[in-house]
């Protein structure tokens, strides 16, 4: 058997990849985070599949479910919101499977920041304005940030910063980024990206925290701060420039 870590996407059920949906349909067991993964996706599972909501399970209990399926010879779809490569808590599960000798594969999904950018109708990398995107979060009681990865340090780059799991700390985000980006720097918050209840908040570092508080946004949101969010006057990309040499075979 194989455990498949599948990126379920940012929220809309139809944003799972074709590979993800096909893999889900072929697995006899599905572990999913009920608080984050759209329940419509479970319709892709085989009718007789064993469905396990992991929202209230700890790592030991989740691992036990994976090992049970392995012993029964059943493939497992482990559905995670967004993409497994960032902020998914997949690494510790894979470490447990490595130790147990259980094979697994990863099926990528649409990350939340990509869905948020789509909702904002913005390219996050714009010629001459910004070519770097930093994906990060803020320290909280659960997990501290490694040395050198605090916002004050990352903000020195001036790059577009995307913060996951930080909506309730919007005031702190503003305080730490303001000295580097300036009060007029564009900022946006997208909550529940791609879902029917999606909420988009636009502003600047000067007012975004207040707008987030007024909207009551506390979770399931990404914060974006950077000049590319408001870029209008910029040079066209060299990719499609008529001056670029194009060789035909």
UniProtKB/TrEMBL annotation:
Keywords: Cobalamin biosynthesis, Methyltransferase, S-adenosyl-L-methionine, Transferase
Any Pfam family the entry gives: TP_methylase
Tetrapyrrole methylase domain location: 2-208
Taxonomic superkingdom: Bacteria
InterPro entries: 4pyrrol_Mease (IPR000878), 4pyrrol_Methylase_sf (IPR035996), 4pyrrole_Mease_sub1 (IPR014777), 4pyrrole_Mease_sub2 (IPR014776), Cbl_synth_CobM/CibF (IPR006362), Siro_Cobalamin_biosynth (IPR050161), Uropor_MeTrfase_CS (IPR003043)
GO biological processes: methylation
Gene Ontology MF term list: precorrin-4 C11-methyltransferase activity
KW S-adenosyl-L-methionine (keyword) present: yes
Annotated metabolic or biological route of this protein: Cofactor biosynthesis; adenosylcobalamin biosynthesis
Record bears the keyword Glycoprotein: no
Annotated Gene3D superfamilies: Cobalt-precorrin-4 Transmethylase, Domain 1, Methyltransferase, Cobalt-precorrin-4 Transmethylase, Domain 2
Its EC number(s): 2.1.1.133
Assigned protein family: Belongs to the precorrin methyltransferase family.
PANTHER family named among the record's database cross-references: COBALT-PRECORRIN-4 C(11)-METHYLTRANSFERASE, SIROHEME SYNTHASE-RELATED
Protein name according to UniProt: Precorrin-4 C(11)-methyltransferase
Gene source species: Streptomyces hirsutus
Lineage, opening ranks: Bacteria, Bacillati, Actinomycetota, Actinomycetes, Kitasatosporales
